[in-house]
């Protein structure tokens, strides 16, 4: 029979009894992680003192979160997002030197195998929405241009939907594209002005937000993943600082350094030069990559 190292379970010794039940042969990192989680969880339960009904509600909430999850919908990641845990894990894993661009959450709408486009292409395949011209440079921390950087971009449309949420309404790969920088490190593309949108809120996480008096909206943004061998991959967004939800992102993804100016251009000559037939929005933003650790 296995011995009860710290005696039998009591309210007072609960943490030690559970932690000491792990074998000495247990993989050290697993033991460390489970020990911390058990300690913090028991501390929380001791502070909250849940009734049996409250504890069952918590179990049912997690059960619903699991049932809502499938190959396409990841309700546990959404839960981690709205509790700020995704951003915290991201911050811990993307500490960068001063001057390097900051990371933010990846989100669920990134696609692999998006077509590579000529620099300058228009990623708005249906031509809907207010036109945009987005440009900038990919630099190292010394300010030198990075050539051959792969820039993967995706965004929501003028109604706040990604192509994958509107199959048959938006063309496949609408508002997505992969670009590669040349020797000058420059990137530029045409697009349509994105709109704020709610994170998927028809599941238990949406119900939790409502119960907490929180809205499910994310401010308008462009997603970027920028990769170049020898540099840390940058997974980030550019945000519209004038968006109604810029100060209350449901997933805490906004960072001050990631707000770009969305400048309305109504100068007729510039409109023609860029091949538009109406005023457009201009965003100019340089990204700075940190070297690989
Ligand atoms: C997104 O920006 O695509 C996103 C991020 C977190 C949760 C839902 C959506
Ligand atoms: Fe997004």
Can you give a write-up of this model?
The structure is a single chain. This protein is of the alpha+beta class and 293 residues long. It folds into two domains: 35 residues; 205 residues, Protocatechuate 3,4-Dioxygenase, subunit A (Sandwich). The chain is built from seven helices and eleven strands. Strands 1, 4, 9, 10 and 11 form a five-stranded mixed sheet that branches. A four-stranded antiparallel sheet has the order 3-2-7-8, with no helix packed on it. A two-stranded antiparallel ribbon has the order 5-6. A hairpin with a 6-residue loop joins strand 7 and strand 8. The longest helix is centred in the N-terminal third of the chain and has 21 residues. The radius of gyration is 24 Å and the shape is elongated. The chain starts with 13 loop residues before the first helix and ends with a strand. The mean pLDDT is 96. The site of fe (iii) ion has 5 residues, from strand 7.
What are the main properties of this structure?
alpha+beta, single chain, binds benzoic acid, 19% strand, 7 helices, 11 strands, elongated, 293 residues, binds fe (iii) ion
Give a summary of the structure in a few sentences:
The chain folds into two domains: 25-59; 85-289, Protocatechuate 3,4-Dioxygenase, subunit A (Sandwich). It is 26% helix and 19% strand.
